[in-house]
């Protein structure tokens, strides 16, 4: 069963429980620092990663908090959404298509996150994106918002809103695009069951099934991301990337990201 006290204890969250932007920011950051992204259990599943999308907050709490494992987007999103709903926040599920290496966006249901409406503003809340992205929620606004040396904004592009990020050394680039259309978990279940026969999903599933492992976690002023052997550390507005050729170094980084050797 989901236990918000145990969840807070696991995160080391001692902030208030009233609805506020400050509490939302702190809780978001604590989750990202404490519960890692880890697709190693799901990488071989292909489109079957969506089979348990509706497993519920109790199941996600058991896996990520009680068992102390990392998870993927819908597990993180579902757990965090359950906590916010218990605290009385106004939360909805939205989806995004992630920008790929070719600068093209994936399908609209490629990624799951949440939107929180609070004091007349809308906040993009996403604790389940491997990154690098943002550590604290981002207001859905074209106004530039800075976090730990990185800048963020949400701009309109045709029928979509696009989350953009900027390092100190580079211009703006898109992270993903989304709409504010509220999504239902049954939409992802349709993908898992094959009812959604968009060939893009088959291509994406094959890529996932190829076994690329992804690990990610935030720390106090930055983020760690390991995609295959490519290791990225984002800190103070800068990104440092290297390839981990040695197996012992690769394993050490995984342990660090998963908080097993931090």
From TrEMBL:
InterPro entries: Arylamine_N-AcTrfase (IPR001447), Arylamine_NAT_domain_sf (IPR053710), Papain-like_cys_pep_sf (IPR038765). Pfam families: Acetyltransf_2. SUPFAM superfamilies: Cysteine proteinases. Belongs to the arylamine N-acetyltransferase family. This is Arylamine N-acetyltransferase.
């Amino acid at each position: 069963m989901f236990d918000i006290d145990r969840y807070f204890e696991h995160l080391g969250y001692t902030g208030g429980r009233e609805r506020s932007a400050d509490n939302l920011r702190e809780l978001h950051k604590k989750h990202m620092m404490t519960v890692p992204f880890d697709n190693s259990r799901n990488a071989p599943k292909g489109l079957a990663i969506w089979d348990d999308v509706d497993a519920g907050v109790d199941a996600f709490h058991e896996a990520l908090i009680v068992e102390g494992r990392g998870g993927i987007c819908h597990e993180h999103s579902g757990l965090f959404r359950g906590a916010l709903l218990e605290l009385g926040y106004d939360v909805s599920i939205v989806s995004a298509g992630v920008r790929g290496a070719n600068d093209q966006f994936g399908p609209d249901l490629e990624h799951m996150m949440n939107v929180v409406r609070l004091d007349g503003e809308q906040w993009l809340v996403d604790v389940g994106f491997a990154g690098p992205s943002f550590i604290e929620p981002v207001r859905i606004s074209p106004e530039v918002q800075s976090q730990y040396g990185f800048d963020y904004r949400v701009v309109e592009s045709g029928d979509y809103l696009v989350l953009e990020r900027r390092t100190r050394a580079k211009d703006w680039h898109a992270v993903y695009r989304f709409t504010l259309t509220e999504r239902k978990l049954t939409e992802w279940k349709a993908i898992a069951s094959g009812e959604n026969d968009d060939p893009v999903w088959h291509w994406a599933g094959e890529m996932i099934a190829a076994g690329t492992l992804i690990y990610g976690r935030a720390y106090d002023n930055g983020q760690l991301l390991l995609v295959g052997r490519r290791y990225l550390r984002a800190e103070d507005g800068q990104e440092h990337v290297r390839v981990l050729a040695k197996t012992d170094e690769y394993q050490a980084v995984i342990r660090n990201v998963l908080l097993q050797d931090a």
